[in-house]
Amino acid sequence: MNINVNIERLILDGVSVPHTERPLLQAAVEAELGRLLADGRLAPNLVAGGAVPRVDAGSMEIDDTGNYTQMGQGIAQAVYQGMGS
């Protein structure tokens, strides 16, 4: 099964990520989301396929200590949960 995920824009209100750290954050989001999707537990509304124009990942507490790998993992988990809504 192939799964294609395209995140056109990720909005983080109130969080400042330095331009030089954005690739690290992006890689962490991609890796964690890929791991979650590879588990094979897709939300019922995604099993049949189709596009989801918007995913509301809700609000979450972000530890703004500069650990962008951990931040990316948390973001991916919130997005994954939002995909199941």
Describe, in plain words, how this protein is organized in 3D.
This protein has 85 residues and is mainly α. It is built from three helices and no strands. The chain has helices at residues 22-38, 44-47, 68-83. Helix 1 packs across helix 3 (68-83). It is elongated and about 40 Å long. The two termini are 21 Å apart. The model has no long low-confidence stretch (mean pLDDT 82).
- Helices, by number, come to 3
In percent, how helical is the residue content? 40-55%
Whole-angstrom Rg? 13 Å
Q: Overall mean pLDDT score? A: 82
Shape: elongated
Reported for the largest beta sheet, the result is: none
Count of individual beta strands: 0
**Pattern of helices and strands:** HHH
**Residue runs with pLDDT of under 50 for 5 or more positions:** none
Head-to-tail CA distance between termini: 21 Å
Strand content: under 5%
Structural class: mainly alpha
In short:
The protein has 85 residues and is mostly helical. Helix content is 44%, strand content 0%.
